[in-house]
Amino acid sequence: MKKAFVLLSLIIHRNPKRRNAMKRLLTLTAALAALAMPAAAQECEDGFRTFGHELGTACIPVDPERVVSGNEFWITVPLVELNAPLVGTAGHDFGSELDYFARLEGLGLSHLVPGDIPSVGRSAGMDLEVIASLEPDLIITTIYEADLHERLELIAPTVIVPAGTLAKEHLAFIADAVGAMETHEALIADYERRIALIREQLVAPEEISISRLDIDENGLWYLPDFGAQDQVINDLGFSRPEIQRDATSNIRGMSLENIEAFDGDLILTGYAPRFGQTVEMLRDDWMAEGGALWTQLDGVQAGNHFWYERDTWNAIGYHFLNEVVSALALITVGREFD
Fold first, then answer.
1. pLDDT reported for residue 166
2. What is the pTM assigned to this prediction?
3. DSSP string, 111-169
């Protein structure tokens, strides 16, 4: 039945003249298959297990052998670190100025790069024919590909990583899906030992406010629970400005007139070289528009404004968790903040 689904899907994509008729046939075939599927309370067939994800449940392989990733930032890197059997990944396009893996290579992080594993297109725009040709037995992707979920399911069991989770929960989900929980637990244990050692050296971290933000020509941005750094900030016990502590959804393009709400003992501002952003651009062009508003912030006046690269600190991976731990320890341990 699975092979029939894949074949029908490929016919639809390759032959536009037959698209409408084949879509109707595919819909009917899927409906008949649904009737033949076991009830939700029943177990999956041998070699598979029930696995909950953002859009429901799926019967996934107990030991997947051919995994496709639908997101380079938040899925592929953890899969590489977990030594998962990755056969395809979104966002894999060396030579492009926007390629994430090329950026990691340039930063000396080749051990996080999936090598010559084929690209399945860009995130939020994957090529279904290419994915089908790789014959995966498991697809892991994000909510950004929710509109593709039903079609991906025709190729292989597909799970959607839950949205709005912090890094450790996100990593545990991926590790569980590929049967690598033992490796995950060992890597997280190492990270948590570092957290414990640094917390012992911090003086009242709950009294140190860390503000994290992005800025562009449209104003101020803040995406809550985003990337490795938010996990580390939480685990080290730092506080946040009220606007960030209470945020339940993304803050996008807020006017610089509101910059005072983003003040903190430490202020961390992201920049993305992969999108042509430089520190000079943000500082001299976009921050300059705030003028006295920006320079009057307590954190700025105290010399506690720092830049971070979004391609690493906003990504999710075991390496990035430890990178952020080291950086925050460097600028906080042994210091007192007023």
1. 93
2. 0.84
3. GGS-TTPPB-EETTEE-HHHHHHT--SEEEE-GGGGGGHHHHHHHS-EEEPPTT--HHH
